[in-house]
UniProtKB/TrEMBL annotation:
SUPFAM superfamilies: MFS general substrate transporter. The keyword Transmembrane helix applies. Gene3D superfamilies: MFS general substrate transporter like domains. It is found in: Membrane. The keyword Lipid biosynthesis does not apply. One of its GO terms (cellular component) is membrane. This is Major facilitator superfamily domain containing protein. Keywords: Membrane, Transmembrane, Transmembrane helix, Transport. The chain crosses the membrane at residues 44-63, 75-101, 160-178. It is a multi-pass membrane protein. It comes from the Eukaryota. The lineage of its organism: Eukaryota, Viridiplantae, Streptophyta, Embryophyta, Tracheophyta.
Length: 190
């Protein structure tokens, strides 16, 4: 049951991010976005997909064998927090530097986000995660819309607030991977 809760919180974060990233990328630079077109976002997501395929086929099995799935999840959560904190600053770049960084960030985010769902094949887990998949985009879209109206706030203006709240959810997910929230089976096999 504890692993289902962990998966659900990670899934809520991932679905909110999936809603926020395209909205942020197409929003104008004056609102902290990238001013990307839909075609540009499609290219970024295509590159991310290939990066994810490469990672899952070649790197993840080795990493999981050496450090275990829980530590891989924790490392992914910490890397996600650092990565999302950099997004508002990446938006200040332009040209080739912006393209390379946003493509790299998108690949990294996709690679570290999907590994936690491995093994979540039981029915109740999938049902509850589906609920969180439904709530994530609605919450993410509302959060992004609200943040666009606070571009001149003195504390976490605009997109800084969006990525801060995503990071708060990720920190909660990271915390619940530790005892007593995540209870390991007696044989320590996941």
């Amino acid at each position: 049951m504890s692993s289902i809760i962990v998966d659900c919180v990670f899934q809520l974060h991932d679905m909110a991010y999936a809603e926020i990233f395209p909205l942020w990328a197409v929003s104008p630079k004056k609102y902290g976005g990238l001013s990307y077109s839909s075609a540009d976002i499609g290219k970024v997501l295509t590159i991310s997909g290939f990066g994810l395929l490469f990672f899952q086929l070649f790197l993840y099995p080795l990493l999981e064998r050496h450090v275990g799935p829980i530590l891989v999840s924790r490392m992914g959560a910490v890397a996600t927090i650092a990565l999302l904190s950099s997004y508002p600053f990446i938006a200040k770049l332009s040209g080739l530097t912006l393209t390379l960084l946003i493509d790299s960030a998108s690949v990294l985010k996709n690679v570290i986000a999907t590994q936690r769902q491995r093994g979540s094949a039981i029915g109740i887990s999938m049902s509850v995660m589906s609920l969180f998949k439904a709530l994530g985009p609605a919450g993410g879209g509302s959060l992004f819309s609200w943040a666009q109206n606070r571009q001149n706030a003195s504390f976490l203006p605009g997109d800084h607030m969006v990525f801060f709240i995503l990071n708060v959810v990720q920190v909660i997910a990271l915390i619940i991977t530790f005892k007593p929230c995540l209870v390991l089976p007696e044989d320590n096999v996941l």
